Amino acid sequence: MISPGPPTVWIDDSHAIVRRGMAACLQQADFVVRGESATLAPEPVLAGLDILLFEYAGPTLRRAVRLAEGNNTRLVATVRDVDEQAVREIVDAGVGAVLPHSTLTPDTLIATLRAVVAGAVALPGDMLTRLLLHVTQSSHLGPTRLNPRERSVLRLLADGMDTRGIAEDLRFSERTVKNVVHDVLTKLNCRTRAQAVAVATREGVI
């Protein structure tokens, strides 16, 4: 569960000026920056932390995932070079959102982190296309039956709606929406909402 009050974030990037710039943007948007690091050194303290914003690299990704195990911290990766390997590794690791440096602005940074806190899918459209290709080629993901309620929730996730918005649109409680999303992820053998949207799109169910 996300902590009450302003969302908390730890910022990791190899460039100090980038870290400071992101921190300034987020603090102006009422985020609480709990700390910063380069390649996860010093090691972030994730207890009670809402978001770990880190710079993607193979070893850094694996370490971030390990640190987040057993915590409710959500992972957001910034990516300097977006290629097929990066997309596969990031999505398969269960990262909640991706921010390409080429399109990173104060507005996209703030909007993406707010979306992640609210439980929305936060993946750029071109990256979602690559993800769809990746899951299409994954042989372990077979046809799965989804009930009408699950399909409705998935359609709204695909539209970029967050948990609260879906609950209001479908007149469900937020807890119900979260339970439905959990069931969908289990049925589709997915770790993230973005991955579930791509799989459902591939199977033609939304």
Automatic annotation (TrEMBL):
It comes from the Bacteria. The keyword DNA damage does not apply. Pfam families: GerE. Keywords: DNA-binding, Transcription, Transcription regulation. Residues 139-204 form the HTH luxR-type domain. Coiled coil: none annotated. InterPro entries: Sig_transdc_resp-reg_C-effctor (IPR016032), Tscrpt_reg_LuxR_C (IPR000792), WalR-like (IPR039420). This is Helix-turn-helix transcriptional regulator. It comes from Phytohabitans flavus.
